[in-house]
Design goal:
With 283 residues, the protein is α/β, with parallel strands linked by helices. It has 10 helices and 9 strands. α2 links the parallel β1 and β2. One of its GO terms (molecular function) is dTDP-4-amino-4,6-dideoxygalactose transaminase activity. One of its GO terms (biological process) is polysaccharide biosynthetic process. It comes from Marinobacter persicus.
Length: 283
């Protein structure tokens, strides 16, 4: 079941969740888009009243917080990604599952170990390990773990670098927002973001297409990125959109994601900002 988003953060509209709950609902899955927190107090309150689990999709939210609490640690489950596009990567694929329940943690450990209690064997809890449940091989290699660990050791440095880059974009593009040419990301009070991405929103799909073409001609890689899941083949087959799609589709058609990575040079960033300004001067 999908509900509409908030256009200010591109996150789930927490005020629409309760009306979408049915007898079949098992969990609420808030996605912290761009590393900016959903309204977790409201979501956790709804989950408690209806006896639901909360699974935080914190794939983009490592190092982000909500009212001082790390995203991914507030719900019953928190999921993170170490894919090559994320702030911290294990060299291609990888992830992290945080579980705030000992019983579920024990089963998750078995599932990741091909359905065996091998981890218990290595801890000396059993004299041999055996097949005890469903599972597959979800363990990273030692090389992947080492690649990731070096970045986690430098997490504060990487985070500060990305936040500085994000702020330069914001400062350089704020005149365009004041002129009503673009909308820039909003960070709600009580939220600390991790500068996972920087996006802007233009007037409509036609203007976005033109801007992307202009940036490509200037050799700037920008993408549209935000695609509504309920319009996908699987979304249509397995899911259902509850209520009115006031913002999800229309806002997705406005969004442009700018180059954003650790070590982006200020000179390169200035060229991106200059190219965007050129576009709006010409149009």
């Amino acid at each position: 079941m999908f509900v509409d988003i908030r256009p200010d953060t591109m996150n789930i509209d927490e005020q629409l969740i309760e009306a979408a709950i049915t007898p079949k609902t098992k969990a609420i899955v808030p996605v912290h888009y761009a590393g900016v927190a959903c309204e977790m107090d409201v979501i956790m309150n709804i989950a408690e009243r209806y006896g639901l689990f909360v699974v935080e999709d914190a794939a983009q939210a490592m190092m982000s917080t909500y009212k001082g609490r790390a995203l991914g640690t507030i719900g019953h489950f928190g999921t993170f990604s170490f894919h090559e596009t994320k702030n911290y990567t294990s060299g291609g694929e990888g992830g992290l599952l945080i579980i705030n329940d000992d019983d579920f943690a024990q089963r998750a450990e078995i599932i990741r170990e091909k359905g065996t209690n091998r981890s218990q064997f290595f801890r000396g809890m059993v004299d041999k390990y055996q097949w005890v449940d469903v599972g597959s091989s979800y363990l990273p290699s030692e090389l992947q773990a080492a690649y990731l660990l070096a970045q986690l050791d430098a997490a504060e440095l990487i985070n500060a670098n990305r936040r500085a880059t994000w702020q330069r974009y914001h400062d350089g593009l704020i005149p365009l927002q004041k002129a009503n040419n673009v909308s820039l990301p909003r960070i709600p009070p009580g939220c600390e973001h991790n500068a996972h991405m920087f996006y802007l929103k233009v007037a409509n799909l036609h203007e976005r297409t033109a801007l992307l073409s202009h940036l490509k001609a200037s050799e700037v890689l920008a993408v549209f990125h935000y695609v509504p899941l309920h319009t996908s083949l699987a979304g249509q087959h397995f899911g259902h959109f509850h209520g009115e799609d006031r913002f999800t589709t229309s806002e997705s058609e406005r969004l442009v994601r700018l180059p954003m990575y650790y070590g982006l040079e200020q000179m390169e960033q200035d060229r991106v900002i200059e190219s965007i300004n050129e576009f709006f001067c010409q149009n």
